[in-house]
Structures are given as C-alpha cells and as structure tokens.
C-alpha cells in the first residue's frame, strides 16, 4: 500500500520530546497478526493487515529518540498499545479505527508521543436497533435509520478511547428518539445521557480519557407552520422548536395576526399544541403595523400555549409577535 503524508500535530510542551528525525529507519514490515515491536528489529514502519490486531510498542527507556509509523491496512481496527503502563500522549492505547489510518510516534525515553496522524475517510455504520459502541469497532459515524421505537446508543469506556471522535445521527422519519448514554457513570459534558429526538439531529463527541466532551451538536432547525387561535385572521405563523443539551425544549416563533377591537384591551393568542414553561411569564416582543405603537407587554402564559398582548389600537391591526421561549414539553407537531 501507499503510505500517505501525515497531518503533523504539536505535542505537549516538553524539552524531552525528540526532534522528528533523530532516530528512524526506512525499513517497513507487514504483519497479519498482533506484533510486539522489538528494540533491535530495525523497523521504521509496521503495516498491519489483520483486523482486530494489536501493535505493542517497545520499552520507551530502550528506544529514546526512536520514530515509528504504524499503518492500518486491515478490514477493521488496529490497536497501538504502550508497553506495560507506558503511555501514548498520556493514554494507554491508541486506536487506528479503519483502513488507511496511520500514526507516527516519537519516543522521549519515558513515553511515546504522537507527531503525525493520517485518516482517509469516515467509517460509517447504520443501525436500526440498540447498539453498544465497541472499543475496536472502528466506527466514526453511527446512523440510526429506524426509530419507530426509542433506541439506546451506549458509548464505550472513555479511558480506552482517549482522543476518539464519534458522531451519532438520527435520520429516521419515525418519532422515536436515540438516547446516547455514557458507559456506567461516565458523562457527556456533565450529562449522564443526551436524547436525539428529531430527524437529522446529531451529536459529535470526543473522549478525554475520563469522560466524553461535546464537539458539535444539532437537534433540529425544521420550521413548522403554527396554528394561531385568536384575532380575526392569521397572516403568517412559523416556528422552529429545538431542544438544548440541557434537555429543555424551546420555541423560536414569529407570526402576524389581525386584531379588531372597539377599545384598548388585552388580547390572548394561542399557539396550538404548544405548552410554555410553568412558572413566571416569559417576555416576547410585539408590534403592529401602525409603526408608532407597540404593545405594553407581550408575555407567555405559563403551562399553556397562550401569549398575552396589551392591545393598543382600536382599529384592525397586523400584530407581529416574535420570541424564543422555554416550553414545558416537546411540541406534539415535532417529528
């Protein structure tokens, strides 16, 4: 196989890290089974063709300034393991998750450091039932395409997957959710679990060796047509519900309704199938097409879908209302 160029990365700030080319060998060897690198084997590049195999590094103290390149040329994953308790960038192991992955290592006489990493493509797996992610399954992206029932995606142990990045995505047209759960008591940015309960929602995380940290997430940006009850007619009404990583549902909304009243009075408009957060009222904004007059207030009514507006005009007006407010529960119209 062709050994590709590396994306070089800076190592820890330490005077003990060797220069990149102090001790190296151009000799390459291919191994189909697990292999323990020897102090004097003379290999500079080790190409692993066996899926699920392990490369065990030699003792750091006997290989000061040595450079090694490990290449995964198998149909699965390859594990790079430090000798005994010796570490690789502070972790006991490093996983080359799929074919085409390679890693360049430097030794400082005490431990090994990563100086370059190369990846070619994502390893994608599609699931339609509960799945426990394995240390050596090699998956970068796990897609759930059938959530007619709720599914659970259990993360692997963080300590055995330091530096591993995993993305989990829900693409189902059904209404079940994907519960992403840490192994045992392990957390995801402090949360014990996170739900992906909308189509196209996803979560991208990385292991820090103790827990998982969120790199990116998306829950939904689908815009829904809202049904507004109140006023004489609705000009437009749209909303985007979303659920934050804290588990709380919110609704961004914007609508315009016509209102006719003989006197100045408060009016109540209701967004169907929406329940605002219990407790204090939440502020939102309102104005109408006269331009110079605005409502004295526009506030949500707790535990209902109602919004109260101080009606300032005795004439028919186009009232514009917008807000981004917390909800009690997931809106029933959300897929």
User: Tally of extended strands?
Assistant: 28
Distance between the termini: 46 Å
Q: Give the helix/strand class.
A: mainly beta
Order of helices and strands: EEEEEEEEEEEEEEEEEEEEEEEEEEEE
What is the CATH architecture assignment of the largest domain?
Answer: Sandwich
- Taken as a percent bin, the fraction of beta residues is 35-45%
Domains, number? 3
Please outline the major beta sheet: 6 strands, mixed
Descriptive report:
A hairpin with a 5-residue loop joins strand 26 and strand 27. Helix content is 0%, strand content 41%. With 335 residues, the protein is mainly β. The chain has 3 domains: 7-118, Jelly Rolls (Sandwich); 124-218, Jelly Rolls; 224-326. Residues 1-23 have low confidence and may be disordered. The radius of gyration is 28 Å and the shape is elongated. The strands form 6 sheets. The chain has a 6-stranded mixed beta sheet with strand order 1-10-9-6-4-2, with no helix packed on it. The protein has a 5-stranded mixed beta sheet with strand order 11-13-15-18-19, with no helix packed on it. A 5-stranded antiparallel beta sheet has the order 20-22-23-28-25, with no helix packed on it.
Topology at a glance:
Elements: E1 7-8, E2 28-31, E3 35-36, E4 45-48, E5 53-56, E6 67-72, E7 78-81, E8 93-96, E9 102-107, E10 112-118, E11 124-127, E12 131-132, E13 141-144, E14 151-154, E15 165-170, E16 178-181, E17 193-196, E18 202-207, E19 212-218, E20 224-225, E21 228-229, E22 233-243, E23 249-259, E24 266-271, E25 285-288, E26 298-300, E27 306-310, E28 317-326
Parallel strand pairs: 2-4, 3-5, 4-6, 5-7, 11-13, 12-14, 13-15, 14-16
Antiparallel strand pairs: 1-10, 6-9, 7-8, 9-10, 15-18, 16-17, 18-19, 20-22, 21-24, 22-23, 23-28, 24-27, 25-28, 26-27
